[in-house]
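[step 3/7] fold_predict: job queued, chain A
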Amino acid sequence: MSDTPVKQQNTAAFYGQSVISFAVAMAATAIGIYQLDTDAWVRSFLAIAVLYLVTSAFTLAKVIRDRQEAGTIVSRVDQARLEKLLAQHDPFEKL
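[step 4/7] structure written:
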């Protein structure tokens, strides 16, 4: 009676595409910042801002994933408690 959710796995192709896409985006941004016709401190500031943005994006993705997984665990615990109560209940027992 229990509906066990299937754990979804990413394919190797999707993982590879994600890594390559991230590497291309970072390389393009680094080349763009390096090629700017401006002072070194401006390029440095932009490079640090990009690195901060990337680390913040990774942190946000992790927090969202953790919150979703915690909700799934709580839901499964509640479902197990309900199944236990229903299994122990005897509708023909006298009150």
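[step 5/7] annotate
Residues 48 and 54 are 10 Å apart (CA to CA).
The radius of gyration is 25 Å.
exit 0
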